[in-house]
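User: Before I run my own analysis I want an independent prediction to cross-check against. Here's the chain; please return only the structure tokens and, at the end, one sentence I can use as a sanity check.
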Amino acid sequence: TVVSLKQKNFQLEQNYQNLRLSSAVQIREFTEKENTLQDQIICLQNEKNEKKALAEQEKMNLQEKLAQTEANIQELKFQQESLIGQKEQLENKLSQSQLTIKLKAKLEKELAQLEQKLINEEQIKEQLTQALQIKEDKINELEQKLIGLDYEHIKKLNNRRKKLNEVEKELREMNSNRNYQELQLASYNANRKKLVFNQVNNFLKAKGDFLALREEAIRKLQNCYTSKERNTIRITRDMVSVEDKISKINVVNRHTKEFQNILIKYNNGLIQLNKKYYSLKNIVQENKDLKISPMIKNILKLDSFSLDRHNIFRFATNSQEGARTQLNSSMMAEDINSLRKNLNELKSELKQEKRIK
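Assistant: Structure tokens:
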């Protein structure tokens, strides 16, 4: 039915709007989450890059210290070798003097100190080597975390894109269904519009037929009036017998009666016009949501349409449905002129109403 189809279309429109709103909210939330995730990942990457850079710097510092320690060790070894050489020379000259003995003791002491320094430097070298290895392990660990973070980032982004694609697919399907429903609704509205215009044409045709009958009625009334007037003149002009005069009076009365019968007969055309009017009014009301309906109501003045304006006896006031048995010529002429004036008004009105086509 019309109501169920309208309700279905309204519900479909509501569902489509709700889905669009929900999808827009989801897309906005996905975008915000993605931006937040992106910011977090960037922060983590920056933090890890900073840590890696710091570790690299510390590694370089350790390498420099290790190189310096290595140089110190080489220097100490060189000094050790020099002192050993001096000691050996002194030992060869041990018997020469007491001064040499003191110098030897001094050299031995310096040699012992030098050996201790060498041991210390070797220990420092070992510690630096261990620290350097720890830094390298930490750098490798940070690099692995960065790789894992990138992988996790890509995985989450792919999941987000997958969800967005699903929402977009649902939107496309909904839009496709909506387009199909719109086509159905457009076809349905076109059929309703066609039905309304058919009723408009039926009403205008009925009105045109009614006016044609009214014009025919006026022509017959005019002929009847002319015949009556002619016979009336003959009665008053010609010298006739009583029988002829009575006969002519009967003819005049017959024309008067015929005049009234014509009015009654042609007033019956109102029934068909009234039927078409109500058919049109009902279908316009049923399809009042169409854009053309208010225009039709306005042009055809459906709300103010009055059948009384088309009633023949509203204008043929001297006849009154055959209540009178005698109508003089002036009364008949007055009714004819009144009907002709009304006919011209209705014709002009019909001409304006036909613009609706």
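Sanity check: The two ends are 27 Å apart (CA to CA).
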